[in-house]
Design a protein that fits this description.
- The complex is a heterodimer of chains A (289) and B (398).
- Chain A is an all-alpha fold and 289 residues long.
- Chain A is built from twelve helices and two strands; from the N terminus they run H-H-H-H-H-E-E-H-H-H-H-H-H-H.
- A two-stranded antiparallel sheet of chain A has the order 1-2.
- The termini of chain B are far apart.
- Chain B is 46% helix and 21% strand.
- The chains are: A mainly alpha (289), B alpha/beta (398).
- The interface between A and B is medium-sized, with 40 and 29 residues.
């Protein structure tokens, strides 16, 4: 593999990894804070991507991404509202969570099929980043660099909220010990609602920003969910820093795996999971529980 | 907790009752079906029933409704009748699933008493239903290119050439007419991708071409970037993708600058009307070998598109709907020639294989040995006119 090829694969892997972080960060937050396995996350991504592609007929790109983000928030709050109906049972029982959210995932996917007739769709990239860079004899689409930069910006904002605000401190406290947090007088309910909304927003933005590359299609609800799971397993539940590193690792493993061993491309990512689980079952950055 | 249990129990009791009612109804229906079959033979004015298995749910779910509309529209043109005898269609959902297709096929046979079954749009479902219909001596008619493997059943026929047939023709055409000496093949890593890649390779190498590299990507790959960046230089790249994968592949092929280096050709679904305008300008100049294109200039294609557009102005013609339309023509023609024997499965199957009609892609007849259609195969490229992409037929491939 030539130097130019290595740089190209790095760029492909990092830009995809950053997008993956947007997708997985919301998933890991609800998982870590509320102990809630939200399988609808993949469907939220897909529906948001479909909403974004509805703006492909000359609409503005910013509007498309914003609409995707709003869709994510609405769907995620809907999931929270449905869960609230039987919260006492769901909160402690992961099997019930999986059953409920899997059902909702199927419902969301079916609604998307009816609305968009199951046809795979695309969103054209905005004009100012529609070209390609030619460096060292290889081409790299400008949009992918833009996508990575936007994802990095959102990740930075998320880090700031998590580490520097009172709200972030409450979320972190909730991840570590929810009972203790409630004992100090912080009600977990509104906190959960906010985390669900943020989680949906992140998934929606990922769907919108990713649409010019990945598009929107049926089946995506499962394929992206698997990716989110891999990141959470690698990074440890509720751990944003872990999710960030894990996303980049998965992005790079995917890029180099496809380039070097195309036949085993699906295996490289799962190979990474097996190695990490054997070495640190709680995830690379997961604390001791 | 107790109230929950109580409720659960009452729900259970109600559902037992429901099952009992359903079972009773099912038996009653089965009875009706049988009597309908037996009385069919005594009277020629009874409608002849044709079962149709299409995917309305599952990954292929988007094709069910448009195909049903095309089949209904074709029969409606002939007033749903052949020589004064009504032809009735019974539609069922095969759910893109072979097991569902089998149980629905049995339902059509036992409860509805159909004389033939149109099946299916999904390759695996088509092959799963094949042996059942062969055993019961009921004709099976495939509406779109189905995988090889139905030839062993005398009752089966497919109103389209196999995917491998068209890809093979493209392989020979690429070597002989387009003058390519070397090719890279990239295809979906499942039955369809391997079938078209193998067929292309065989004919391309037979024509003196050389395959430099073969890459198979998993079904549902959304990012082909890393595969693309590793493609070695060759005269041409052959792609075997369909659906969402086709959109992403052609888009990224352009984005990563490979299109400037090597031309791209593929089997029909890579460029079908359903994906073409979602791909966007990246599709311009890409070539494909296939038996159908909506831009084919013939009377039957015009009649097909005009009829469908009159009912629904947003209709997008594709080989799925054109195939359903041609299937309707085959049924009407074969039932007419079978005459009094149309309810005799073996006679109707024979009549179907002997059919020779005009389909939207030209003359349609069947290979009497295999039951697969013999149809012309065209080479076309995607052209951009005023922001809208369409096919430009180059020629019929020899």
């Amino acid at each position: 593999m030539s130097f130019a090829q290595i740089v190209l694969q790095l760029a492909i892997g990092l830009s995809f990894g950053l997008l993956l972080f947007l997708l997985a960060s919301g998933f890991t937050l609800t998982f870590g804070l509320a102990g809630f396995v939200n399988l609808t996350h993949g469907a939220v991504f897909m529906v948001s991507a479909y909403v974004a592609t509805s703006f492909s007929g000359g609409g503005s790109f910013v509007l498309a991404v914003a609409a995707a983000g709003v869709t994510g928030i609405v769907l995620s709050i809907l999931v929270y509202a449905v869960s609230r109906l039987r919260w006492s049972k769901l909160a402690s029982d992961e099997l019930s969570q999986v059953l409920l959210t899997f059902g909702l995932l199927l419902v969301f996917a079916e609604v998307a099929r009816v609305l968009w007739e199951g046809v795979p769709r695309s969103l054209p990239e905005p004009g100012f980043v529609s070209g390609s860079w030619d460096v060292l004899g290889v081409s790299f689409p400008t949009y992918r660099a833009f996508m990575g930069a936007v994802a990095l910006l959102i990740a930075g904002a998320l880090w700031w909220v998590q580490e520097r605000t009172r709200f972030g401190a409450m979320v972190r406290a909730g991840v570590d010990d929810r009972d203790m947090l409630e004992a100090t007088g912080v009600s977990a309910g509104p906190l959960f609602l906010a985390v669900f909304a943020i989680s949906g927003l992140l998934a929606g933005l990922a769907g919108g920003i990713g649409a010019p590359v990945m598009g929107a299609s049926m089946g995506q609800e499962f394929s992206v969910l698997v990716l989110a799971f891999v990141v959470v397993v690698l990074g440890g539940t509720g751990n944003l820093k872990g999710a960030f590193i894990a996303s980049l690792a998965v992005g790079l493993a995917d890029a180099f795996g496809k380039a070097l061993l195309p036949t085993f491309a699906e295996f490289t990512m799962m190979g990474l999971v097996v190695v990490v689980l054997a070495w640190r079952p709680q995830g690379i950055f997961g604390g001791v529980r | 907790m107790t109230s929950f249990h109580l409720r659960l129990r009452s729900v259970r009791r109600r559902s037992y009752l429901g099952v009992a009612v359903l079972a009773a109804a099912g038996m009653a229906f089965a009875g009706c079906g049988n009597s309908a079959v037996s009385s069919d033979k005594s009277s020629d004015n009874k409608p002849i029933k044709i079962g149709v298995l299409l995917p309305y749910t599952g990954p292929f779910g988007l094709y069910g409704k448009p195909m049903e509309a095309a089949l209904r529209a074709r029969l409606a043109l002939d007033d749903n009748a052949v020589d004064g005898r009504k032809v009735e269609l019974v539609f069922e959902d095969e759910a893109t699933d072979p097991a569902t297709a089998v149980s629905k096929a049995n339902k059509l046979l036992d409860q509805d008493g159909v004389s033939a079954i149109v099946c299916c749009a999904t390759g695996a479902a088509t092959l799963a239903v094949g042996p059942i219909l062969a055993e019961r001596h009921v004709p099976q008619l495939g509406p779109i290119p189905n995988p090889d493997g139905l030839s062993k059943y005398k009752t089966a026929a497919v109103a389209a050439p196999t995917a491998g047939h068209d890809a093979g023709k493209l392989g020979a055409y690429a070597a002989d007419q387009l003058g390519y000496k070397s090719a890279v093949m990239v295809a979906s890593d499942f039955a369809y991708g391997h079938e078209v890649a193998e067929a292309f390779k065989q004919q391309f190498t037979a024509g003196g071409g050389k395959i430099v590299k073969e890459v198979y990507a998993p079904l549902g790959t959304s990012d082909f970037a890393s595969y693309l960046s590793q493609l070695p230089d060759a005269d041409v790249v052959f792609a075997g993708f369909a659906g969402a994968d086709a959109i992403r592949f052609v888009q990224q092929y352009d984005k990563f600058g490979i299109k400037k280096r090597m031309p791209l050709i593929g089997h029909g679904p890579l460029l079908t009307e359903l994906v073409l305008n979602q791909i966007g300008p990246a599709a311009e100049g890409v070539g494909a070998g296939f038996y159908y294109s909506s831009t084919l200039d013939n009377a039957e294609n015009k009649r097909f598109i005009d009829t469908m557009k009159a009912a629904n102005d947003k209709f997008v013609p594709s080989h799925f709907t054109a195939g359903a339309w041609a299937t309707g023509s085959v049924l009407l023609d074969a039932i007419g020639r079978a005459g009094d024997k149309a309810t005799d499965g073996d006679a109707l199957a024979k009549a179907i294989r002997a059919t020779k009609i005009d389909a939207p892609w030209g003359e349609l007849k069947f290979d009497p040995a295999t039951g697969y259609a013999i149809a012309p195969t065209y080479y076309y490229t995607a052209v951009l006119n005023g922001g809208v992409l369409s096919h430009k037929i180059v020629e019929e491939m020899p």
